[in-house]
Amino acid sequence: MTKRIFSGAQPTGNVHLGNYLGALRNWVALQHEYESFFCIVNLHAITLPQDPKLLAEKTRDLARIYLAVGIDPQVSTVFVQSDVKEHSELTWVLNCVARVPELERMTQYKDKAKKQQDNITVGLFDYPVLMAADILLYQTDLVPVGDDQRQHLELTRDLAIRFNRDYGETFKVPDAYIPKAGARIMSLSDPTRKMSKSDDDPNGCVLLMDDADTIQKKFKRAVTDSGTEIRFDLSRPAINNLLEIYNLITNKSQQEVEDHFAGKGYAQLKGDLAEATVAFLQPIQQRVKEITDERLDQILGQGSEKARQIASVTLQQVFEKTGLSR
Ligand code: ATP
Ligand code: MG
To answer: I need a labelling partner for 190 at 20 to 30 A (CA). Which of 4, 198, 217, 257 fits?
Structure first.
């Protein structure tokens, strides 16, 4: 049987190069090999405050981005999380399997809670359980994500194993697919932090929809390390990050990239990087504009129908195993 992948991104802001290089790029590459489900996880988005009108807009924008980067709705299922009620229902059941201390250990929760001291919702705490439900509903084999999601994936596996042990074999235990390169693209303003949609500093992220001017400015402002040599070196995280982006965007080998920049300065690196990024994003931005509302609704409608067919079978099994169906 064809193996399945499931993954998603939150419509919390604008998609950046980190999201693309760490996740979306691999979805596109894997979709022909796996039966693929790509979700716009708007239920995750509301774990932090969102403007309702903007959230609805961002949800559609993100769907457009999925398609524009190369997700093919003929082979992949693209849908919005809140359109498939099973995600919320399975979350409740898994809430009764997950333990409070294991959720308290989640570093994303701790990081995001720190920024929200007076306003930490139960939803933010429960985020990893919802993510486990997303994945387990589709009997997923592989979950292509960035490195920041490694811990959540471990929890998903733990919950699946525990449920299977307590109620009988029900869920496939999924594996994470974390790429060797691009799994953790760092902020241009602070190479100790990952590039994030919810970052307060807009200069840290290059967005897929940024215009050429903005891209040039952001790379120009990017912090660098001391020294002058341009080569891959983890002990110089700022330059390493810029080179990793260049490497992935241009599809060159590390050696080719180092040869290209041999004897050149940081200004050249930033200029070339901006130029390559603009050229790379131009056709994506063009495709975003070409997707009509009508086409988008059709794809998301078909997607949620297909997703529901599979999700409902899993949920029915869960209800039977747990005594929730009579
Ligand atoms: P937020 O700050 O709202 O959490 P985000 O930038 O982390 O936004 P998500 O929607 O949470 O984006 O994540 C979507 C996918 O992108 C996930 O698979 C995640 O692992 C991946 N991802 C996020 N940031 C990076 C990054 N800096 N480098 C590589 N992959 C990333
Ligand atoms: Mg995130």
So the answer is: 257
Is any atom of ligand 1 closer than 6 Å to the C-beta of 241?
A: no
Residue 198: CB within 6 Å of ligand 1?
yes
Residue 138 has pLDDT above 90, yes or no: yes
Q: Is the CB of 184 under 6 A from ligand 1?
A: yes
What does the radius of gyration of the chain's CA atoms come to, in whole angstroms? 20
* Confidence category of residue 266, pLDDT binned at 50, 70, 90: very high
The chain-wide mean pLDDT, for the chain, equals 96
Nearest to 145 by CA among 13, 307, 8: 8
In the numeric block, which tokens belong to residue 187?
């902020």
DSSP output for 145-181: --GGGHHHHHHHHHHHHHHHHHH-S-S---EEE--SS
**How would you label 296-325 residue by residue, b for 16+ Cβ within 10 Å and e otherwise?**
beebbeebbebbbebbeebbebbeebeeee
Q: Give the Å distance between the CA of 159 and the centre of ligand 2.
A: 21
The token duo for 80 is 């919005």
* Residue closest to 308 by CA, chosen among 77, 34, 93: 77
Structure tokens at 103: 């959720």
Compute, in degrees rounded to 10, the torsion defined by CA atoms 302, 304, 306, 307. Answer: 160
Any idea what the Cα angle at residue 119 is, between residues 130 and 95, rounded to 5°? Answer: 25
CA 58 – CA 73 distance, rounded (Å): 19
Compute the C-alpha angle 285/289/293, nearest 5°: 140
Give ∠ CA 224-225-227 in degrees, rounded to 5: 125
Task: Name the burial class of residue 148, with classes exposed (0-12), middle (13-18) and buried (19+) by CB atoms within 10 angstroms of its CB.
Answer: middle
Nearest atom (ligand 1) to Cα of 147: 20
